[in-house]
UniProtKB/TrEMBL annotation:
Protein name per Swiss-Prot or TrEMBL: Monooxygenase
Domain of life: Eukaryota
Statement: the UniProt record of this protein carries the keyword Transit peptide: no
Transmembrane segments: 248-265
Amino acid sequence: MGSTDKAGNDLFDIIIVGAGISGINAAYRIQTELPSASYTILEARGGMGGTWDLFRYPGFRSDSDLYTFGFAWRPWAEPKVIADGDSIRKYIHESAALYGIDQKVKFHRKLVSANWSSDQQTWALLVDEEGRKTHFYARFVILSTGYYDYDEALSSHIPGIEAFTGTVVHPQFWPEDLDYKDKKIIVVGSGSTAITLIPSLAETASHVIMLQRSPSYILARPAIDPFGHWAQKLFPDWIAYRITRLKFLILGFLFIKFCTFYPLAARNLIKKATLKELPDNIPHDPHFSPRYNPWEQRLCLCPDGDFFRAMRAGNASVVTDTITTVTETGIRLASGQTLDADIIVTATGLKLKVAGGARISVDNVPVTIGEKLLWKGVMLQDVPNVATVIGYTNASWTLGADATALLVTRLLKSMKAKGVTSAVPRREHSEGMKSVPALNLSSTYVVRGAKELPRTGDKAPWMPRSTYFSDLWGAKFGNITDGLQFEKVSTAR
């Protein structure tokens, strides 16, 4: 439980902002590693799950395997290795309830601003509680808010879109009552959202067209992993889970390294797999031949090849072109072709945002997050006692979130043992260090929103995350003092 100061305000050792998968994971690590610490979770929305509670578009599912996307401390027990949004949301709720974490969540508390007081060695959080302003106080804050804007989608200039007389929808704000049965649909975009949407829409729509300016890499993989299936038959569940998770960790690591060091061979491998899935009437080039190398942007996964199956059935097709203008009834392309549509889906990416847009300040001096470096991929330069959870771009998000939580709890235990009240990353002896983006993707939405995110450097301890294995080792055994300035300040009144 938190304590109460003289003014009647809530004071906690740790406040987690966000009750998504990162926040729930951080709460579990706090409970197990710091059992005497008081904490709470502030959640802006009315439910747990974050992304998995927000998105409700047809077919919404994971684009990572659930053996590594699931919590390390509660195995994913369902047979599907790539799961739908409802199943993941249920898993998050059950996991939180199992360990009493759901009782720590305060819903409808949106963080407006947070100010660090060096005198008090405390964060003061201004929170909007359904129009009423309240305050919370914490010794340490964990920002588990994800990296994109929940309230506003990425704006994409589509000329003439206002002239369209049909329905325009962004997947982030999918209407519950949208009827797309027997409708002609154009999905603008070729990322994981489009690859997820299209097979589901194609089940009842008249026809679905994926309209892309440039292609993405798409890999079909079994929805139920054969190795995991047989492991569960041969071993007790806890052993089967561990070896299957390890298999996905190792193979995922090796595949990314293969793509990085042998990009041409990786291209050819993916091309060969794609050609096996495509119908004869849809050529590989130019529709499935990206301009970038594998893992310069995320690879798109489709369980049991459902995306390609929709193509083979004739319910979906792909067009690679640029938009000249949207008309009243469809889209006119640079090639002169016109595509008719009843519904246009703009699956064009996410708008990046850190800390849910809250204003962060230190002793009332505003902090510009996009100008700060990340210490070990976790703590903001010059900002005391705050961790920012950013997962991996080339592996399951939860892996990075867990490495962060383990590092933070280890740091807090060390601080408590030494009587330290604050730790602040300071950039010293780093002359000539190059600044690089925290997210190493060339995707349009990442490039456009790069200034919103903190940055990393090319020298330790400011280097970006590399792999889960090295980050996990660093979290458990690595140096947790290099680059940090510690203070012991009495806050007794």
